Amino acid sequence: MKPDVGTFPEFRRASVADQAAAALRESIRQGVWGDLLPGEHELARRLNISRPSLRAALARLAEDGVIEVHRGRRTRVRPTGRERCEEVPPAVCLVVPARREPQGLADHPVITQMRALFAVQGVGWEEVFDHALARRDPEVRLTHLVQNRRHVCWLLLSASASLQRWFEASRLPTLVLGSCHEGIRLPSVDLNYYAIGWHAAGCLAKSGHRRVAVVLPHRALAGDLACLHGLVDYSRRLREPIEVAEVIAGPTRASFVAALTRLLARPERPTAIFCIHVAEALLVLAHVLRSGLRVPEDISLLCRETIPAVDAGLPELTRYGRQVVRQANLAVRIARSMLAGQHVPARAHMIMPTFLPGGTLAPPPSW
Fold first, then answer.
1. Phi/psi at 331 (5° precision)
2. CATH code where residue 212 lies
3. Do 75 and 134 belong to one domain?
4. Do 330 and 317 lie in a common domain?
5. Which domain holds residue 262?
6. Taking Cα atoms as reference points, which of 288, 274, 206 lies closest to residue 240?
7. Which of 18, 77, 95, 281 qualifies as a cystine partner to 342, CB 3.0-4.6 A?
8. What percentage of the chain exceeds 70 in pLDDT?
9. Exposure pattern of 270-305 as b/e (b: 16+ CB <10 Å)?
10. Lowest model confidence (mean pLDDT) among 81-85, 171-175, 241-245
């Protein structure tokens, strides 16, 4: 289905019950009520909410082991309930199943912006870079990771399906910075990669391209595949479909260069190459030029993303610029709601990036 790139999903506000539960939790922590809470009528009056909303809030506190609710008797704070509500500084923990490298994921512009926003708001920040979490069975390491960490919202970046699935089953406050893999239901914030692929295919078709190569990373994530699907779905709707060839960037630079050499040596080589990541786009650009071909006169080049260093390059790459501030603000809002104990629906919050035409997209030579 063609995405509606002109509208964006709204962030769902916390329910009255969520807010009431958070207020009661804080008052219990401060010892306002002692061992017994007032009756329903009095509590509803003080919180200025309906009795059904109050009962929903009390049910959530009872489920968390904070209070004991018995029909016909006043609600009692459990002996361990106040300990559960004791003040623990809120914090977020970024989990990345990769090694920390200079100029890597830790310097991602959205992560940098989020780190600054949380610091201003007094929310702690922790980062866990662990390449072993990329394995298919990260359960033991994850169990050890979450032990003794309280009042934490977990942020997953570049996460595999097994990693996302574990956090989904754990029911811990978790936000995916990216797209969820198929069948996994967690709140997520990401660019609308499907729409990017759809839009890129439209630009290529309008320019007359009918043979396109897509460069995918060696370990394709959900957003990478969504981008590919968007491009392919659009091309199939055309009267003259675009022929899409996939090229895997890896696992080594040498193997990637060999794959590009074979691609350019085809009798009917692609007239355009669409790259997922900037690093691959720059390598493709260099390899095409070394092969004696011109960009975009002989081969057009597009990239799904950009970085500041590329924005000033020549030729100016045709690319998509992410809405860094908007994406970071939305992710921080959702994480803060989770830290406040509010319910956040397990759905994708998508943002459409800005198309930057650049100078590497042109009609193919024979068009």
1. -65, -40
2. 3.40.50.2300
3. no
4. no
5. 193-322
6. 206
7. 18
8. 92
9. bbbbbbbbbebbbbbbebbeeeeeebbebbbbbbbb
10. 81-85
Q: Which of 138-142, 258-262, 263-267 has the lowest mean pLDDT?
A: 138-142
SS3 string of 73-126?
A: CCCEECCCHHHHCCCCCCEEEEEECCCCCCCCHHHCHHHHHHHHHHHHCCCEEE
Final residue in a domain of this structure, among 50, 84, 118: 84
Residue type at position 88: V
Is it the case that residue 154 has pLDDT exceeding 70?
yes
Name the domain boundary from 27, 61, 84: 84
Residues 236 and 277 occupy one common structural domain: yes
In a domain, 113, yes or no: yes
Q: Which of 26-30, 102-106, 115-119 has the lowest mean pLDDT?
A: 102-106
**What is the DSSP secondary-structure string of 15-44?**
PHHHHHHHHHHHHHHTTSSTTBPPPHHHHH
pLDDT at 1: 41
The partner residues of 96 in beta bridges, in order of sequence, read 129
72 with 101, same domain: the answer is: no
Q: Are residues 303 and 252 in the same domain?
A: yes
Residue 2 counted as domain residue: no
Among 331, 360, 270, CA closest to 112? 331
Q: Do residues 198 and 227 make contact, with C-beta atoms less than 8 angstroms apart?
A: no
Note whether 145 and 135 are within 8 A (CB).
no
Answer for the pair 348, 182: CB distance below 8 angstroms, yes or no: no
Tell whether 199 is covered by a domain: yes
What is the domain count for the chain? 3
Using DSSP, how many helices (H) and how many strands (E) does the chain show? 13, 14
The fraction of the chain above a pLDDT of 90, given in percent, is 53
Name the nearest CA neighbour of 207 among 357, 362, 366, 365. 362
Nearest alpha carbon to residue 347 among 8, 115, 109, 57 = 8
Contacts of 264 (CB under 8 A, 6+ apart): 287, 288, 291, 293
